[in-house]
Amino acid sequence: MASFLKGIMNKLGGGKSSRAPFINLGAFGKHPGWDDHIDDLGLESPQLINAKRIFYVQGMSGNIDSGAWDHLSDDDQLKQFRHVFAWRVGDDLIIGRLWSSSDGKGRKRYPMIVAAHCGGLPMPWAFAHILPMLEKVEAQCIAATTASTVRSIMDRAREELRSLINGRDGGRDGEDSSALPSPLATLATRPEMGSELKGLLAILYQVERELGRFGRTPRAIGRCRSRRDICAFRPARRRRMRRCSCGCDSCSRSSIRIRRCV
Hints:
Layout lengths: L1 H11 L9 E8 L16 H21 L15 E8 L2 E9 L10 E9 L3 H21 L3 H20 L16 H6 L9 H14 L6 H5 L4 H5 L17 H13 L1
Antiparallel strand pairs: 1-4, 2-3, 3-4
Helix pairs in contact: 1-9, 3-4
């Protein structure tokens, strides 16, 4: 159970990353410069490769090729792709932008997607600098007609983002995360939580008490000698937990993260 609580603390906690900051920028999908799907551009990290596999190959391609989206009612269908997404994977963050596009043969069922994978950077800094760059890349790629032009656009944007990292001064613009309290720390020190972290300790005690059985492994079940022992490992029924009622942004974010973790 200790490892379970440690995982929650790691996910909720903030603080400065020990890694050197980095940004990788990649693109996939369709563009008129290619007769079919774009050759992978800048997918230099396993995280970007995995994002393409889950988001594009398994998600979009699976639904488009199977015709699943064609069976949706008109109210449920989107006429165009025009979205921004953010995906936090551990300490890494993937920020992307997609828009309706076509390939060189005029087929328009797939979008074009650009995505930045970054780490070692405060989240506010990442959103403030990466999102405007992705919007700029979209406009340039829409105007481009050849694959070589798109490659040049991606190379320039990637170098510009990396130069922004080198130019960070750790001031207010960068929002150095070492100077910012984590959402968990903010929640724990709210007056409603009581003194000496009593409120936080009560929450963790409740988590351990009510969710302890979820941490037991199949190996432990294999050592059971009777049906009664096996039944003891069945998941507990769903429980409700009270949270801080102050309504501040930090506590609301912490509450959301607690629900995701447990």
